[in-house]
Amino acid sequence: MEAKYLEDWLRDAHAMEKQAEEMLKAQAKRIEHYPALSARIDQHLHETEHQAEKLERVMNELGIDTSAVKDMGGKLTAFGQSLGGMMAGDEVVKGGIASYAFECFEIANYKALIAAAEQANQPEVVRVCREILEEEQAMADWLD
After folding, report:
1. Sorted alphabetically, which keywords does the UniProt record give (predicted)?
2. Which of 13, 34, 57, 143 has the most C-beta neighbours closer than 10 Å?
3. Structural contact between residues 13 and 110, judged by C-beta atoms closer than 8 angstroms
């Protein structure tokens, strides 16, 4: 596998985490009447912020910059998703479904990143992605 794919996929993962941050922030503002969900969303928001920082650190160590375009695209997508769910009477249920689907998407991406990093002999990337994968799996399990 070419190292370029690993670089691109790390940029994609960073943008994915930026999108997740925005989605979680928007969701957190509208679920105050669901204390258990609100607490778990807040916890995962903090995890997500740390995940983006971890990715930035390993990318910096490898001389890879983040993609402002991809990060902005992720944030705009999250904003659109937030607007789409705001008017629904069953927003909490739809938000839960969307969150679960997004967690599964993240899980698949981190599994692919781990395999690519193993092939590229990048043990620190493997370690960081495994840490993040555990948090994503825990969130998906909680939502399930």
Report:
1. Coiled coil
2. 13
3. yes
